[in-house]
């Protein structure tokens, strides 16, 4: 099964990187879902929830304040102005500005 290579970066640092089965992001014109084999895409992000389903199945959730998402040849890059990541489901997150 093909996977996505995903990088989530803030303007000054890498936030998360790894293989994923699916990415959902808040594009400016609506929620977008990305699976392996997705056609090339460049979209503006609005504030909202970013969800990444890694190959191990433990969903990574983040809140982005805006930015953009790029998809090309199973490489997904999310560049966000501000990102708050929740990794363990407990509500504890890390804010990256």
UniProtKB/TrEMBL annotation:
Family of this protein: Belongs to the ATPase epsilon chain family.
Taxon lineage: Bacteria, Bacillati, Actinomycetota, Actinomycetes, Micrococcales
Subunit structure and binding partners: F-type ATPases have 2 components, CF(1) - the catalytic core - and CF(0) - the membrane proton channel. CF(1) has five subunits: alpha(3), beta(3), gamma(1), delta(1), epsilon(1). CF(0) has three main subunits: a, b and c.
Keywords for the protein's UniProt record, in alphabetical order: ATP synthesis, Cell membrane, CF(1), Hydrogen ion transport, Ion transport, Membrane, Transport
Gene transcribed to yield this protein: atpC
Residue span, ATP synthase F1 complex delta/epsilon subunit N-terminal domain: 4-82
Official protein name in the record: ATP synthase epsilon chain
Subcellular location: Cell membrane
Function: Produces ATP from ADP in the presence of a proton gradient across the membrane.
Main location: membrane
């Amino acid at each position: 099964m093909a996977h996505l290579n995903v990088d989530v970066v803030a303007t000054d640092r890498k936030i998360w990187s790894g293989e994923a089965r699916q990415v959902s992001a808040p594009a400016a014109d609506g929620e977008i879902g990305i699976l392996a084999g997705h056609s090339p895409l460049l979209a503006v992000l609005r504030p909202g929830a970013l969800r990444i389903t890694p190959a191990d199945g433990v969903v990574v959730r983040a809140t982005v304040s805006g930015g953009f998402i790029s998809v090309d040849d199973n490489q997904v890059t999310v560049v966000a102005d501000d990102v708050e990541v929740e990794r363990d489901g407990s509500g504890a997150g890390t804010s990256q500005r």
